[in-house]
Amino acid sequence: MKAVSGLYLTIIVFLSLAAAAPACSRAAEPLPSTSMHTIAEQYVRLVLAVGLHDPDYVDAYYGPAGWKPTSKSGLDELSTRAQTLSTELKKIPAPTGPMESLRYSYLTQQLSSVAARIAMLKGQRFPFDQESQALYDATAPVQPESHFEEILTALEKRFPGKGSLVDRYDSFRRPFQIPKDRLDRVFQTAIGACRERTMRNIQLPDGESFTVEYVTNKSWSGYNWYQGGFKSLIQVNTDLPIYIDRAVDLACHEGYPGHHVYNALLEKHLVKDRGWTEFTVYPLFSAQSLIAEGTANYGIEVAFPGDERVQYEQQVLFPAAGIDPTRAREYYEVQALVNKLAYAGNEAARRYLNGEIDATQAAAWLEKYALMPHDRAAQRVRFFDQYRSYVINYNLGKDMVSAFVERRAAGDPAKRWQEFAALISSPRLPSGLR
Ligand SMILES: [Zn+2]
Asked: What is the C-alpha to C-alpha distance for residues 110 and 168, in angstroms, rounded to an integer?
């Protein structure tokens, strides 16, 4: 996952910078390419300026160091600046080429997302769905309790007995924890497998690589910090027990073909090959995040389609973790059922952030409907506080990306990789997936 904050100077700065771009300021009718270039640079500077107000906002930046603001601008000023940029962008005729057209729509939406985030930093609170629409260009469907109760009934049958279902599920899972002293070995093995599968299907830029660090005291379980130059830093949070399914999940999601590959391909194809500087910055609370999280989650199934994951884990990862490999299939059958509860997190977040329930009730809701043990539920509520409606990017994002790619691939595994690679090399928006 990712993060941003900070705004930039207002009209005066915009005009002076526009004046610094000769072709743009002097031509009666600005050249579209030059104007887009100028607006792209101003967008980057604006995002970096918002980052000074919000430490989670700028998830990655590898553009010119001189574009970083030297002092903090007021939020009103930054708000005006976002509006001015949107107005300037509208004056440019919409391009007709497929990639140029995606770029134009992307910048339009990203500027709108920045404006919404600035409004939030100024204290405005939107209802959950309105917030996710404004920031991420999407709204998660509402699921009633009865939807989750059907899945819980199936799990009750799988784990009969006394006490709460979440405790029984937790006891079942205990033998599938990765021992701390084997964590790095298991992760490195999973990363190797994800990389090998990705490289067979996607041409990765020369010199790409990442390092893994183990950290504590975070509201997330893993994080990819893209550094530019095709390098990432991946952090894994070890606050809570880590179960065997997290190895492939994290290796694919944060690494291959997830966030690391996504960022590296954007840098290669859009920044280096086309000179589209807006992609040197990644504002976390923006539409880009739904694509990033959706492709990172769906990428797990692209790398390990069908039964391949269970087979691989049984043969390689379970033994590496010292876990009984004969139970791999049983474990993943239960996980498939539990994963159907994924949208329960959206419901808890929606109710909590809309002020209908408090933090204790939100944690209790997660324990009951998402089957999260108490500590994990509490960690998740801290995530809601920090990242708010960002939660929809994981599950809704995955479903939207999956539907988009599967529709185009029509069941052909090679085509699935091609469509996936094309998506993570282009500036497509969530609304453009439909
Ligand atoms: Zn992520």
From this structure: 44
